[in-house]
Design a protein that fits this description.
- The complex is a heterodimer of chains A (199) and B (397).
- Chain A is built from ten helices and four strands; from the N terminus they run ββββαααααααααα.
- Chain A is mainly alpha-helical and 199 residues long.
- Chain A is globular.
- Chain B has one domain: TolB, C-terminal domain (Neuraminidase).
- Helix content of chain B is 0%, strand content 40%.
- Chain B is built from no helices and 32 strands.
- The chains are: A mainly alpha (199), B mainly beta (397).
- Chains A and B meet through strand 1, strand 2, strand 3, strand 4 and helix 3 of A and strand 1, strand 2, strand 3 and strand 29 of B.
- Strand 1 of chain A pairs antiparallel with strand 3 of chain B, so a sheet runs across the interface.
């Protein structure tokens, strides 16, 4: 085991900048989100254990999730019939509404030692390239910071088991080298990360 | 009401990462092996995949630069994540997609293009070809055949499943191409960035049109998503994507020539024909493998790869290879985002020239040229999976 001293590295980097996409209407989304409140919270901050928070999720992430529920690539007894009734405009509005809601970290018991180990793993496994260093997500990549611990565990285990469909196959690929302990540590790190709004 | 917003950003941020002390505790996972430690906090990530197509009026097609006499317009919009294209016998253009999971039919109604979804919920149905009234679709798990589809665009028949592919998803969105032998050619990409692939992967393969007779054609191919057969020699040419996380300028994506089956093109041992991989190339030499015909540039992401056999474009374009390049993500300055041509005159080195460029401005993506299909009159259709549109490139002297 050896410690290596890394030098300061200077990066000039470019965000994956994009132009031109249709965005939804936040106010219309607020009305359309009323049926969602029981599970996901009125402002997208869920309180039920195991239920994902949607507040502060990048709009494109929520929109893609709804598309996948609608076309059957992702299945859930509640979400599938709900999404089946949504138009493209509904999905854009809902996604815009949740993206505009300030996220809060879920109040949950997390293990500090696991979270510390998870932080190292997040860098080693490159999670922070797509999900950003603060785990706030970007574009179609979800926010993980402060998300529900049980939900994170369930999803990471499903990616490892190759039973969760992801948009491009990247998460299934990324999860393959993870051990059961790695998954626990990563989920604890993500769940403890502060849910500061995206810049 | 739906509001249209221009989300535009840019972006050259200068950032100083203090990496500090990092403990070397375990080898990195295979998919990112070779990534230098100082890149562990790199913000480079695959380019965004918008969930909605861009309306034609908002696509900055006027930024595209072409040689004199050529003109580009938006031919059809509203085709989320448009990828490979194929003409039906009755003039329907079928269009595959990747993350959208859809296959589309575009029907020309007196100059107005109507877009129908003929299949949805598939797993990256990138590859589409047509023959004898049937549409063939390759998604990741299966090869599907939709018979007599042009008569049933509003109520497509259930497909026949002709073949089951290995389940690995990454780099296994497939092109489809009919060979001169009437077989179907397709890729089975490496299920990783860099790794020792299973025997079933990192190749180009073929099978009969009924799904029988599978055989490997080319080995050591990391990720090819475009191929065509030379109009004169009928030999296979294909492009391939090089590995990531080995630097801004290394390795090059490549153009290959496979005059016979069974050649090995080097991956994962040798990159771009001249450099052994730091992890997997130990004890190996690039001279063991068939070299690329041409280095295309690092990370430029070659997709549509098609020879020009029409007669609308000036005579010098006859039999030239067109390569649509989606553009880089794993590179600090964007590269690609263009269509190139390769002149492959016998006995001469390949001549590599820009055809269409201007699909990015600095760090801002303006479009992503993806697949090429030819119109009957010899003009070009070019899909863009970012805007969900198809462009039409014509020539008038």
């Amino acid at each position: 085991m050896s410690l290596r001293l890394m030098t300061l590295a200077l990066f000039v980097w470019t965000l994956a900048a994009v132009s031109s996409a249709q965005a939804g209407d936040v106010d219309a989304g607020r009305r359309k989100a009323e049926p969602c409140a029981a599970c996901h919270g009125a402002d997208g901050n869920a309180t039920i254990v195991g239920m994902p928070s949607l507040a502060g999720q990048p709009a494109w992430f929520t929109h893609w999730a709804l598309i996948k529920f609608r076309d059957g690539r992702r299945k859930d007894p509640v979400m599938s019939p709900f999404a089946a009734r949504l138009s493209d405009v509904d999905m854009a509005d809902l996604s815009a509404y949740y993206a505009a809601q300030p996220p809060r970290r879920r109040p949950q018991a997390v293990d500090a030692a696991k979270a510390a180990a998870g932080k190292e793993l997040a860098s080693l496994h490159h999670c922070t390239s797509c999900h950003r260093p603060d785990l706030s997500g970007q574009n179609q990549v979800p926010r993980l910071a402060g998300q529900d611990l049980e939900y994170l565990l369930k999803l990471l285990r499903a990616y490892k088991a190759q039973t969760a469909g992801d948009l491009e196959g990247l998460m299934t690929q990324a999860a393959q080298p993870l051990s059961a302990a790695d998954i626990e540590n990563l989920a604890h790190f993500m769940a403890t990360s502060p849910a500061s709004p995206a810049p | 009401m739906l509001r249209i917003a221009l989300i535009s950003v840019v972006v050259a941020l200068t950032n100083v990462f203090a990496l500090g002390l990092v403990q070397a505790q375990q080898p990195p996972p295979a998919w990112q092996q070779g990534r230098p430690p100082e890149l562990s906090n790199s913000p480079l990530a695959p380019v965004a995949a918008p969930p909605t197509p861009t309306p034609a009026a908002q696509i900055p097609v006027n930024k595209v630069k072409l040689p004199p006499g050529f003109k580009i317009t938006v031919w059809a919009d509203g085709i989320l994540n448009a990828r490979q294209m194929a003409w039906g016998d009755k003039g329907t253009l079928f269009v595959g997609s990747r993350v959208a999971g859809n296959v589309y039919a575009v029907v020309d109604r007196a100059g107005r293009r109507e877009v129908k979804v003929v299949a949805k919920g598939l797993v990256m149905p990138n590859g589409v070809v047509f023959k004898d009234g049937a549409l063939y679709v390759a998604d990741i798990p299966r090869l599907l055949k939709y018979e007599n589809i042009e008569a049933n665009l509003d109520n497509p028949p259930a497909p026949k499943e002709l073949y089951t592919f290995p389940k690995e998803a990454h780099h296994n969105w497939r092109f489809l191409a009919w060979g001169p032998d009437s077989k179907l050619y397709f890729n089975m990409g490496a299920p990783c960035n860099i790794c020792m692939p299973p025997d079933t992967h990192a190749n180009i393969s073929r099978m009969n049109a009924d799904g029988t007779g599978f055989e490997y054609v080319a080995h050591g191919v990391r990720n090819s998503v475009g191929a065509d057969f030379h109009p004169v020699t009928k030999e296979l040419y294909f492009t391939s994507h090089g590995r990531d996380w080995a630097g801004d300028d290394f390795p090059n994506d490549t153009l290959h020539h496979a005059p016979r089956k069974g050649l090995h093109f080097g991956w994962p041992y040798c990159h771009q024909g001249d450099t052994v991989d730091p992890d997997f190339g130990k004890g190996r030499s690039c001279s063991e493998f068939a070299p690329p015909l041409l280095k295309l540039g690092p990370h430029i992401a070659p997709v549509g790869t098609r020879f020009y056999t029409g007669s609308l474009f000036p005579p010098e374009y006859k039999n030239r290879l067109f390569i649509a390049q989606k553009g880089s993500w794993n590179r600090s300055q964007k590269l690609g985002y263009r269509v190139m041509t390769v002149d492959l005159k016998p006995g001469q080195p390949p001549k590599y020239e820009v055809f269409a460029e201007g699909f990015h401005e600095g760090g801002t993506v303006l479009g992503r040229p993806t697949y090429i299909e030819w119109m009957k009159d010899g003009s070009m259709l070019l899909s863009d999976d970012f805007h969900g549109a198809i462009y039409h490139i014509t020539y008038q002297r």
